Amino acid sequence: MPTKDQTLVTLREAHLGPMRFMNILSVFELGIVDLMRKQPNQRFTAEQLGAAVGATPDAIYQLLLLPVKDGLIALDERTGEYTLDGLARLGDEDFARVLPWMNMIKVVCLRQLYYLTDSIRAGEVVGLQKLFGLTGTFYEATLGNDELRSAWGSMMDAVTEFIDPWFFDNVEVGAGQKVLDLAGNTGLGAILTYRHKGVDNLHVTCFDFPEKEAEALANFEAAGLAGHCSFIGGDVFKGVPKGFDLVLIKHFLDMFDRDNVLRILRAVAGALEPGGQVYILVPIYPEEIRESSSVDFFPSYFLGCTMAQGGPQKVSTYSAWLEEAGFEVTRAITQDHATMPADMVPVHGIICGTRKA
């Protein structure tokens, strides 16, 4: 059991979290980091930085206290000049991964989380209505809001770019198989499946709401894969298309609570013949949650910002649900922390199941 002081420290860190986040983000948004990166051999005073970004030297001094404390930026106390410290060690690839996350948290999460308690009580994302006049889930709302769609999409593109090679390295696709990408949005997953697993006579079908068909078909055409990828419109809760050997479910099951996850998995089982396979890619919690940073992020994200339900589960939980839905679990793996960038929040798992007779 934690001591009284340890408990108070935990509460203190909760107080500080949002303040620290916005302080660091503001340093980026003002352009201070960009300015220093473009002139790595230059040393800047608060006056010079303030003049460059349109702020007073006093405000710059206050704002940079935290990044100096945390070792992101260095201050020469003798001259009052600033240079990059830890941030100087990051490359373009690192910033391209980190900054979309920070922007998404600001645009999508911070405002909506003011209504987290209300969303939990109401069972719906209250912030969407209060802030944007939108109803339904966040993913439905992004169809009509460019600001939300851009912030979330840029973050998801960074996650997809990182996770897909690992996923497809662990997916077995045979020649001539018919693959269904469940809830495949506008076809990117189908395109990536074909490119990563381009075996002979492979055909990949994207299954999602009918209104996404035109964009998906245009994406297939642009990728030169119109003859290898197709689209079927529908709703997974009303039925899954039959005639496929393999179903991929990526970044989808974590959006729902147990009952809806089982509805989806049972629908997939009903659409597959015995021996048909399903591969599930989901962010997961470790079996020992004290080792996780995902639990710091995802409960608030799903309950307060996107679905008012859902969230990752442990691999053992997903495996049990897959068995309950009529599959035999044949493989379950988790990303190796040692191969991941230190800033990554989600840790993903892959669970493979074979339809029982």
From TrEMBL:
CDD domains: AdoMet_MTases
Domain (O-methyltransferase C-terminal) ranges: 114-328
Pfam families listed in its UniProt record: Methyltransf_2 (PF00891)
InterPro entries xref list: COMT-like, COMT_C, SAM-dependent_MTases_sf, WH-like_DNA-bd_sf, WH_DNA-bd_sf
Protein name: Methyltransferase
Domain of life: Bacteria
Keywords: Methyltransferase, S-adenosyl-L-methionine, Transferase
Record-level Gene Ontology MF annotations: methyltransferase activity
